Amino acid sequence: MATTETATLQSDSSESAAEVHPLDGVFSPKSVAVIGVTPTPNTVPFDIFQNILTSGYRGTVYPVAPGKRSIGAVRAYRYVIDIDDDVDQAVIVFPANVVDRALEQCGKKGIKSVIVISAGFREVGPKGIKREQRLKDICKEYGIAMIGPNCLGVINTDPAVSLNASFARKMPKVGRIAFLSQSGALCTAVLDFARARGIGFSKFVSFGNKAGVTEIELFDYLHHDDQTDVILLYLEELRNGRGLIEAARRITRGENAKPILAIKSGRTPQGADAAASHTGSLSGEDAICGAVFEEAGVIRVGSMEEMFNAAIMYTYQPMPKGDRIAIVTNAGGPGVMATDAAVRMGLSIPRFDQSTTDILQDSLPDTANLKNPVDVIGDARADRYTAALKAVLDDPNVDQALVILTPQSMTDIDSIARGICQIHEKAGKPIACSFMGATDVHSGVELLQEARIPHYVLPEWACEAMAKVQAVRQWRGQPIEQVQPLPVARDAARAVSAAAEPGYLSEDEALRVMGAYGLPVPRHKLCFTVEEAVEFAGEIGYPVVLRIVSPLIVHKSEVKGVALNLSNAATVRSAYDQMLRHISSVFPDTEIRGVLVRGMIPAGHELIIGAKCDPVFGPTLMFGLGGIYVELFKDVTFALAPIDRATAARMARRVKAYRLLEGMRGGARADIEGIQESLIRVGQHVSDFDRIAELDVNPLIVGPAETGNAVADVRIRLSE
Amino acid sequence: MATTETATLQSDSSESAAEVHPLDGVFSPKSVAVIGVTPTPNTVPFDIFQNILTSGYRGTVYPVAPGKRSIGAVRAYRYVIDIDDDVDQAVIVFPANVVDRALEQCGKKGIKSVIVISAGFREVGPKGIKREQRLKDICKEYGIAMIGPNCLGVINTDPAVSLNASFARKMPKVGRIAFLSQSGALCTAVLDFARARGIGFSKFVSFGNKAGVTEIELFDYLHHDDQTDVILLYLEELRNGRGLIEAARRITRGENAKPILAIKSGRTPQGADAAASHTGSLSGEDAICGAVFEEAGVIRVGSMEEMFNAAIMYTYQPMPKGDRIAIVTNAGGPGVMATDAAVRMGLSIPRFDQSTTDILQDSLPDTANLKNPVDVIGDARADRYTAALKAVLDDPNVDQALVILTPQSMTDIDSIARGICQIHEKAGKPIACSFMGATDVHSGVELLQEARIPHYVLPEWACEAMAKVQAVRQWRGQPIEQVQPLPVARDAARAVSAAAEPGYLSEDEALRVMGAYGLPVPRHKLCFTVEEAVEFAGEIGYPVVLRIVSPLIVHKSEVKGVALNLSNAATVRSAYDQMLRHISSVFPDTEIRGVLVRGMIPAGHELIIGAKCDPVFGPTLMFGLGGIYVELFKDVTFALAPIDRATAARMARRVKAYRLLEGMRGGARADIEGIQESLIRVGQHVSDFDRIAELDVNPLIVGPAETGNAVADVRIRLSE
Question: B336 and A120 in contact by Cβ < 8 A?
């Protein structure tokens, strides 16, 4: 969050400047060979060579172009191995079918960093997948860090390097934002978009098919890159979700923390059909993605606009001390809209101290609104704006300020911009501006941009950006805990699942597993005769519940496999007989393992705790409102397992049903601590056993603290 | 939805061009007097006069400037009555304290249209409110249509008038969008913003304090204005919500239908404190506002960006036949993001016919994606774009197309734009574009804008705009029904409430009222002795419920005033005695009116039907999920009462709980027709009785069709 473009000294002493990161060769090579250059302008191969040559690159660039003596007056080589110099990096632009041979030559030449621009790999189907595997194999053999294939390339604006190894038209400005994109084409739009707003970049990477280097290694590099303050990511495909989350957790908190803003679009590797895959992702992976990103401090955004709006707020301005925003405007309407937006986004609108109000009263006309949002009135000129902005920034109740301007005929836009710039220099608190309109305000906006004061076309966007910076601040304030395994009877659980076939555990097995992990499982027994059932019922006390246990019956109530509220031995007897008779007649061939007897669970809220070993995220935990409302309101959240206490507490708070648990409408506070404990325990279980295809404690009946919670039903499905 | 700027003939024969609308003088005066002009440039009074003089106004403008012979070389008058000509319109720019005198002179002069620019009225407190009332009185006396006070003025771009009676810097382009704003300052920003995008306006009105002409009369004028295709409204304060909704209903459907897009920001007349009022509005009025706008075909938008994005889509392009969108892109990433957005917004992504796929295959390289979204690949030039766009538009499964372009080094942006323009000329289906970036794509974007092809910086915004046009289409497809009053025992209901004091009706009274209006009230009796209770219980059959009836006890269960599931005479007796004993001991002075006896209602879904006479919207109806989840998920919707059958059906469908009612997870379909009938009946009740401060049927227990629904509890509070 430095406010200048100069490099700051690395504070982490273990990462001295001398230490070489494995990706240093990708970003800061001393020499680059471009393999497959052609002499035809406006083709990718030529453009890339030309870009390196003309972007001010501080190293040496060698064109490799079989059959050409020179390219653009630079001596060309037939093969990379012919170059009589050390080569740190190769950029391969050959057609897909010969890339492997070029890559192999790079390996032989000892080149450790290769960017494969060429398309025609995984994205084109089976043949391409095979080609891509070949590249992977070669990289492994020679220890090559490969970016791509199927990408736009890499840009490093660091003046000490100044490398544009991409086919983007122009080199971006120097800045402190790193941008990583799986889509190459998007990069060109982003560069153009950023240039028009004066936004600069530290590193710019199109990583394409990520057959070699993935976003995870890039995260690690950028974490230690002292030119980068914030990391932006556009991702289409999560291959190693868990790795990404773990890397993000390291980066977004603690020493040298940097925020990550990410767009994750819908496509999954399974879905060639974008539409179908989208719908799929919305219901499943996408929901997990949103929650686990949040649990790793990754701020998920919906569009480029939103991403850059937040990124410039973070990089241009100091970190605010809190969420209180003052608004200064010459237009009531936009002031109200900004207030609406600020409150909706979770910022707060403080009242000013009396002394601030006094200053405002002295500086503004009678018709002005002295309360927050301050309305300096349509005919305000620079004097009023600066007086008001200074006053509100000096107020101890204000953490940051937003200045809104609409171009009235008397508005001296440039003077106002200059006034804001002056105050900004020593403000110490973040300032954002929204000079509304386009042409009229253009020169004023340029003055603000030059001074690195974030400017937004709409005041609402400024509020949204400020709210995202708050999210960064709050995330950093979260305690970092180590996951502490709780004492559990792991061997007892293992004994159950080791013996089990793939498919559902029976209810008594599932309860046993949950009991072994310390979940609040009610006392129960699998009975094989009616006498046994009556005896156990007498032992635990009436009323009791009978539940059929059969490997083929998953939905017990639908087949009359549940009898509730049995208040004496006689009703237990008749219910037992009736149940067995009914099920045997309806499903004559079903194996019945027995009848589970347990006590009635007192009424309470119905919650759900779910878990599974997800192919992308690994062991994953779910929590939310259970019963029929799970499906209707999807009031659930996710986290990667195992979890610590702080994460358990956040998961509980994140669902809307939390208000219910806290005791809404005068209801008693539920045993929230018990829920958190169960979450930790289920998380531990799904981490310990990698065969959990599906685990649902649904419902967990949650009562007040003195009663506690109880597992009313649990289903566990094991994979192979 | 004309695609040219020329006026279309009025199709509504009852509104011939010769007929004069009361607001014609506001928009098309033959002569204008500007009262209070000063000779100082860059002041509001001078600027307004100058704007009229230099905007190409086809009539005559007279400056009224006491003590000046001329203003800007135009002969000035001391008073408006001194002008020796008919004056159709006056624009008053005098200080607030003398506006009334100028207005009175206008009245005497026979001027029927006045625009009061001056501020210093209602917005400054009691003194201003008094001043404003004086203006209203004068308008009434002389029959003056007054715009303002406290506004920017009025613009009519019609070449036959060409009037800029405002202090906006420049006259906007001619267009078919009308913009109405309560905020004057916002207008200047909007004009600047629109100019930069080549967006024109038909009429542009800043109506300020709306002491005379309100948005409702303006709606009516614009409905009949053949220069206007779409109406945009920025509103801070809903004074006559019902009037606005009724006007909107007339305009947005039927003959000569025009869509209305509205921003309603948080401020209410009650709230000087923007923050406090905002929070208030979010919980109450704002929720009603959202739903009743929807029920009047008003599309509520959140920002200027969203508003204009939709407005240009609607006015520039023909109405699509359906919601199926084809996407053509040279960049996979943005294509996926657009697909995500389209699906999220409710558009559908069709599959192409085989013949389309064949054409695409012939025109595109092997690596192209021939499915929707069509990826013409990064190196595509105009030929590929036009071939693909033409093919998808010709496909019978496609209703509209979105073209996405990212500026690659080989992209011939202008040629592609020209190709799209050519196809657009005879496409007959809507086309939108997103040329992503800024500088690189600038000239291409200008070509599109000139051809009136909507262009969006982000593809997501194009999808959002297209989805809003779908909302217009769907709204127009809704049946227009007359509200048919159902036969009810209105007199019986009247007898109850006529006798009632302000405050809550007792339960038996409330049930009687609901019964009179035909709600499914279970058989019940207010009993005064235990014998009477036992006798009635025997009559209706066990099990029964007892409920205490006392004017001071609203929450019966909290004081043990409810006994459920009583299965025989003995339990009724003991419950009756116990209930009376308990309540008499806890509330010794409470008047107990009796004990209500009714049968148990079978289990079902808990819904809520609410109603009230709202100060802004009049009789208003609410529907949603009842019980404890009302507060948690706020799964409720609203409509103005009374309602027709189509509205009742839409209300039911609009809540998430509808899926539950339809029979989720194999559950039976609920008696949805019964719910709709109850909604209509409660709506009829709240319309018939204007003393309903609060009415809540909560819960309405909803069972499957064969069981039907039952009012389990109802509370009615009457006002004075």
Answer: no
The tens digit of pLDDT for each residue in B644-675 reads: 999 999 999 999 999 989 987 667 899 999 99
The closest CB to that of A409, out of B169, B275, B344, belongs to: B169
Residues of chain A with C-beta less than 8 angstroms from the C-beta of B631:
659, 664-665
pLDDT for the residue A170: 83
> How confident is the model over A155-171, as pLDDT tens digits?
999 999 999 999 887 89
- What is the phi-psi region of residue B518: left when phi exceeds 0, alpha when psi lies from -120 to 50, beta otherwise? left
Cis? peptide before A407, omega within 30° of 0: no
pLDDT score recorded for residue B438: 87
Q: pLDDT tens for residues A410-440?
A: 899 999 999 999 999 999 999 999 999 888 8
For B523-599, CATH gives 3.30.1490.20
Q: How far apart are CA A481 and CA B640, in angstroms?
A: 53
Environment class of residue A331 by beta-carbon count within 10 Å: exposed (0-12), middle (13-18) or buried (19+)? buried
- Note the ipTM here: 0.85
Instruction: Tell me if chain A has a CB within 8 Å of the CB of B38.
Output: no
Domain B318-477: give its CATH code. 3.40.50.261
Say whether residue A182 is in contact with chain B using an 8 A CB cutoff: yes
Q: What whole-number distance in Å separates Cα of residue A466 and Cα of residue A470?
A: 6
pLDDT exceeds 70 at position B630:
yes
- Contacts of residue A195 in chain B, CB cutoff 8 Å? 438-439
> Chain A neighbours among B 455-484 (CB < 8 Å)?
457-458, 460
Two tokens at A253? 């908190």
Alpha helices per DSSP H over A395-435: 413-425
Q: What's the pTM?
A: 0.89
Nearest CB neighbour to A665, from listed B44, B441, B628: B628
Sign of CA dihedral A533, A536, A540, A541: positive
Instruction: For residue A699, give the nearest of A557, A551, A528, A544 by alpha carbon.
Output: A557
Tell me the shortest Cα–Cα distance from B562 to chain A, in angstroms: 18
**B554 part of contact set with chain A, CB < 8 Å:** no
The fold of the B605-718 domain, in CATH, is D-amino Acid Aminotransferase; Chain A, domain 1 (3.30.470)
3-class secondary-structure state, position A38: coil
On chain B, the residues whose CB falls within 8 A of the CB of A558 are 666
Cβ neighbours for B211, distance < 8 A, ≥ 6 positions apart: B116, B121, B122, B132, B135, B136, B139, B146, B148, B149
Do residue A439 and residue B302 have CB atoms under 8 angstroms apart? Answer: no
Burial A43-64 (b: 16+ CB within 10 A, else e): bbbbbbbbbbbebebebbbbbb
Look at A336 and B44 and tell me if their CB atoms are within 8 Å: no
CA Rg value for chain B: 31
State both tokens at A383.
């004097």
Q: Is B120:B112 a contact under the CB 8 Å cutoff?
A: no
User: Yes or no: is domain A325-452+463-477 CATH 3.40.640.10?
Assistant: no
Report yes or no: B385 and B416 within 8 Å, Cβ to Cβ: yes
Which B residues 41-80 touch A at CB under 8 Å? Answer: 42-44, 47
Domain ranges of chain A: 325-452+463-477, 523-599, 605-718
Distance CA B192, CA B195 (A): 5
Q: Which residues contact B485 (CB under 8 A, 6 or more apart)?
A: B642, B684
Nearest to A642 by CA among A502, A508, A491, A486: A486
- Residue whose structure tokens are 């509104």: B15
Stretch 250-289 of chain B: residues touching chain A, C-beta under 8 Å: 263, 265-267, 272-275, 278-279, 282
User: Is there a contact between A192 and B440 if contact means CB atoms under 8 Å apart?
Assistant: yes
Partner residue opposite A332 with nearest CB, options B44, B120, B185? B185
